[in-house]
Design a protein that fits this description.
The protein has 4 helices and 8 strands, in the order E-E-E-E-E-H-H-E-E-H-E-H. The strands form 3 sheets. The protein has a 3-stranded antiparallel β-sheet, with no helix packed on it. By secondary structure, the chain is an alpha+beta fold. It is elongated. 9% of the residues are buried.
């Protein structure tokens, strides 16, 4: 049976190994194989093996840097701009202006104000290849 971690939303399976003994059952932890947090405990005379089925969807580097989710970034509808200096040949950093209509939840979470310029976003945060390795 596939289980979902309540901490990180990873999907995993649990197998019991060496159980079926007559006595000496102990409470053994069942840990999420992704975030390593204890999801629950069960009594067994053996032990458990947890196997990751699907890692959780993770937010982009930009969203993580800003302290918001990808969904919140999309909801804001902000336009990300590159500061290329006077030469337009090299990007030095990225910036955006917090748009009208940004939710109070996002403003409270980040401490931003509508109309504020959020700048000095490092190039490495935006120009990162987040495609999965093959």
């Amino acid at each position: 049976m596939v289980e979902k971690c309540p901490f990180c939303d990873a999907l995993f399976t649990v197998s019991s190994v060496g159980d079926g003994g007559i006595c000496g059952a102990c409470r053994e932890p069942i840990e999420c194989p992704h975030c390593k947090k204890v999801v629950r405990e069960e009594r067994t005379t053996g032990y458990f093996i947890e196997k990751l089925v699907k890692a959780p969807i993770q937010d982009s580097s930009l969203s993580r840097y800003l302290g918001i989710t990808d969904e919140e970034w999309d909801e804001m509808g902000a336009e990300l701009n590159a500061n290329t200096g006077s030469s337009d040949e090299m990007t030095y950093y990225y910036w955006f202006t917090v748009p009208d209509g940004t939710s109070d939840d996002i403003l409270e979470k980040t401490g931003w104000k509508v109309g504020q310029t959020v700048d000095d976003i490092p190039v490495w945060v935006v120009d990162v290849d987040e495609s999965p390795c093959h």
